[in-house]
Automatic annotation (TrEMBL):
Binding-site residues, ATP: 101-111
Protein name, UniProt field: 4-diphosphocytidyl-2-C-methyl-D-erythritol kinase
GO biological process terms on file: isopentenyl diphosphate biosynthetic process, methylerythritol 4-phosphate pathway; terpenoid biosynthetic process
InterPro entries: GHMP_kinase_C_dom (IPR013750), GHMP_kinase_C_sf (IPR036554), GHMP_kinase_N_dom (IPR006204), IspE (IPR004424), Ribosomal_Su5_D2-typ_SF (IPR020568), Ribsml_uS5_D2-typ_fold_subgr (IPR014721)
Gene: ispE
Keywords annotated in UniProt: ATP-binding, Isoprene biosynthesis, Kinase, Nucleotide-binding, Transferase
Annotated catalysed reactions: 4-CDP-2-C-methyl-D-erythritol + ATP = 4-CDP-2-C-methyl-D-erythritol 2-phosphate + ADP + H(+)
Gene3D superfamilies, A to Z: 3.30.230.10, GHMP kinase, C-terminal domain
Top-rank taxon: Bacteria
A GO molecular-function annotation: ATP binding
HAMAP family: IspE (MF_00061)
Cell inner membrane found in the keyword field: no
GHMP kinase N-terminal domain: residues covered: 73-151
Length: 309
């Protein structure tokens, strides 16, 4: 029996997201402080020697994806690109435990693609250089390079320029999605008439010892896609208000192109309490109390333990 490999696909959070320009090909230039959370999908797999790539999708959010052709799934696309690049004759039976809401601004599909790259490079013992991996990841989506990087960083360009930042402490958070997908291209199109933010505002050397000091610095920034997203899905305002009104909330903001929003809380207890209180009023919302991944917790999660449900 062949060994089972497993990789975690943590949700990506855009702590701030500024749109700083637009390229001739229509892609937008961004500047975003990105971190990752202990909430995420889990990808596992076994090696095949016939080159076939099979994907089974399980988990609470699998219904949003199982009806799609799995050939279009970012996990399978990542696997095919790695096969082409490396020339390997190996294949894989992959299982994606889908826990993150789909098309929700926390990069679930991108995180899965990045997890597939990590898992298959390990399983197939590929020795591809960083340049090849960066190229493959960007081909899969603008958010895939940062998910492959997997560490707190400042993301710029269209998503391919990554600057490491001092690690964040473990910050208590609540993630909420109102249960409705939003389309990233549509959000960018809707904000067409809005101007651009200035780049270079974030002090890349600044260190934060607590969620409070981070939230304070983040209050000078924002998410430039919020106006467009709330005009398409006004429920996002309800989510932001629900997060902000709970005790201990230091900041409530939308991630990416939405609709998932995050609240930063002073303590873990306050985050848990807020999540429970909001869940009792909104049974159809996806609500996840969590925390940011920092160096220490990331090392622990690499041991192979899966994310908490
Ligand atoms: C907005 C962000 C912020 O982190 O997050 P999400 O909302 O997806 O989580 C990302 O840039 C999304 O990255 P990703 O979802 O991989 O985007 P892609 O598949 O490459 O592009 C989808 C579409 O979004 C628009 N797009 C995306 C990225 C970018 N820098 N400029 C753009 O204009 C383009 O219209 C593109 O056709
Ligand atoms: N493994 C996957 N998980 C989620 N979405 C996927 C996956 N593979 C392909 N997709 C497609 O990618 C699109 C963006 O999904 P996702 O990455 O979840 O969005 P976002 O980056 O906004 O959180 C969806 O429309 C979905 O159909």
């Amino acid at each position: 029996m062949s060994a089972t490999y497993s990789e975690q696909a943590p949700a990506k959070i855009n702590l701030f997201l500024h749109v700083t320009g637009k390229r001739d090909d229509g892609y937008h230039l961004l500047e975003s402080l990105v971190c990752f959370t202990a909430t995420g999908d889990v990808l596992s797999g076994e090696c095949r020697d016939d080159g076939a790539i099979n994907l089974t999708i399980t988990g609470p959010m699998s219904a949003s994806l199982v009806l799609d052709d799995t050939r279009d799934n970012l996990v399978v696309r990542a696997a095919r690109l790695l096969q082409d690049e490396s020339g390997t004759a190996l294949g894989a039976d992959l299982v994606l435990d889908k826990r993150l809401p789909v098309a929700s601004g926390i990069g679930g599909g991108s995180a899965d693609a990045a997890a597939a790259i990590r898992l298959l490079c390990d399983m197939w013992q590929l020795d591809l250089d960083q340049k090849a991996l960066a190229r493959i990841s960007l081909t899969l989506g603008a958010d895939v390079p940062v998910c492959l990087h997997g560490k707190t960083c400042l993301m710029s360009g269209i998503g391919e320029e990554l600057t490491d930042l001092p690690d964040l402490p473990e910050i208590p958070m609540v993630l909420i999605n109102p249960g409705k997908a939003v389309s990233t291209p549509e959000i960018f199109k809707t904000r067409e008439d809005e101007g651009f933010s200035i780049s270079g505002l974030w002090d890349i050397e600044r260190e934060f010892s607590s969620g409070a000091s981070l939230a304070d610095a983040l209050s000078d920034c924002g998410n430039d896609l919020t106006l467009a997203a709330t005009s398409i899905l006004p429920e996002i305002c309800d989510v932001l208000n629900a997060l902000a009104r709970e005790e201990g909330c230091l900041l409530a903001r939308m991630s990416g192109s939405g609709a998932t929003c995050f609240g930063i809380y002073d303590t873990k207890e306050q985050a848990e309490k807020a999540a429970n209180a909001i869940a009792s009023q909104h049974v159809d919302w996806w609500i996840s109390p969590t925390q940011t991944l920092c160096e220490q917790t990331r090392e622990l999660s690499n041991i192979g333990a899966s994310f908490p449900d």
